[in-house]
Design goal:
The protein contains seven helices and no strands. It is mostly helical. Helix 4 crosses helix 5 (68-74) and helix 6 packs antiparallel against helix 7 (105-119). The chain is globular. The mean pLDDT is 80.
Length: 126
Amino acid sequence: MATEDDDPRVRRLGQYIRLQRQMADLSLRGMADLTKVSNAYLSQIERGLHQPSLRVLQAIAKALDIPPDTLLAEAGLLSKPAADPAAGPRSRTEEAIRSDPDLTAEERDALLRIYRSFVEGRSPGA
């Protein structure tokens, strides 16, 4: 019987979730409390031993303040968005802020709020 850890997509998803959790300065137990998923199961997901269900992915996305479609794309359940000139730069900027390991969770949240306040209501390319 092949295990899910044989699938590089499952390992990549687990690594992505672990990195996002660590950058959010969130313990495994803390994320378990937020997601209502056991910390043992979350640990298995992060190690690439299990492909989480859609419900679990959505709970993880909410706990980590990541757009669910980003996590679904990392899981291979949704194709990654094409380079859309209208949405591309903004999503890349927000993703860069969310993934910067030098920022604390509070700093990332503050920068995202400030960035969004600058770009809200602007027309694409303005």
